[in-house]
Structures are given as structure tokens and as C-alpha cells.
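WARN retry 2 of 3 for item q-0093 after timeout on previous attempt; input resubmitted unchanged.
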Amino acid sequence: MRPSLLLRPAVLLAFLISGAASAEDLVIPLPEGATVQRLKTSYACTGIGPMSVNYVNSGGISLALLPVAGKPMVFANVLAASGARYAAGPYVWWEKGGSATLQDLRKGEDAAPLATCTARP
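OK item q-0093 returned
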């Protein structure tokens, strides 16, 4: 049987916010023999307060699950010169060495980030 990464909305929402879940599942097929690694990191963020981010990695798939403006969003890893950069719609989550920023590219790439975050122990 081919492995897959099953992202149930109820699980995603439980990680991100409290509230009701939708009725659909998202299944991402994975390469044969792939394992799934999950890491939950709490951040102290200026501009938006405390936030939890769930990182899910398997094979060439790297995702960050985090709330933006009160809504859960799934960010996919994209090319970065350093650190880990994730994008979802107009938003970019960029993490490096325990520090992270959340940007809204609609405001311009040089605009101040929506949030500057530091991982909490």
C-alpha cells in the first residue's frame, strides 16, 4: 500500500484554532517508504500575539500550518536563500534559527512584516 499524508480538517483546526471542522479530508500521496515528521512550535509574535505553528514534512513535501487573521492556512515550502520559507496565497512565513516573520506580499516585498516572531522554549 502506498503511504499518504492525511490532513483531516478536524486535526488541522485542533492544532490551529478551536472551532468546528469541515467534512472533507485532504490526502497527499507520498513516495514509497516515506515517513511523516511533525513538529509543533510556539512563537511569541509582535503584531499578532502568541501563535502555534505545525510543521509537517515527508519526502519532498514540507508544510507549515498556521492561522492568519483568525483563519487556518496551509503554507507550502518554497525556495529560500536561507532558512525555511513557506507561502500561502499572498502570505509568506519565513523561519530561520528560531526567528520568523509573516509577510503580506500585497503590501510589497519591502513592507514591514505583519508579525515578527521568536520561538518559545
